Amino acid sequence: MILFFGTREVKQDDPAGMAQLARCPACGQTVTLQPRSGRMYFHIFWLPIIPLGEKQHYLQCPVCRTRYAHWPQSRATQAQRP
Questions:
Q1: Mean pLDDT, 10 residues at a time, over the chain (82 residues)?
Q2: Is 11 exposed, middle or buried (0-12, 13-18, 19+ CB in 10 A)?
Q3: CA dist., res. 1 & res. 5, Å (int)
Q4: Can you list the positions of beta strands (E) in the chain?
Q5: Cα atoms in the 13 Å half-sphere on the side-chain side of 69
């Protein structure tokens, strides 16, 4: 029997994040950077089974798919409070 297993990232839209209108440094287009999040999973037969690590939040260019790290809005406001 052949068993396919490994790790892969599961990505999704991040409804808690805020989209930002900006010029993408990678492709030079003025775009709305989309808030996204992703988490690594151990998978068997391409089905995510066990989450590995924490969820990563980032902004992604819809044209070239380049990712830019950012803090989620909730964490950013918590970090600014004394």
A1: 90 85 89 92 93 91 88 40 34
A2: middle
A3: 13
A4: 5-13, 20-23, 30-44, 47-60, 67-69
A5: 2
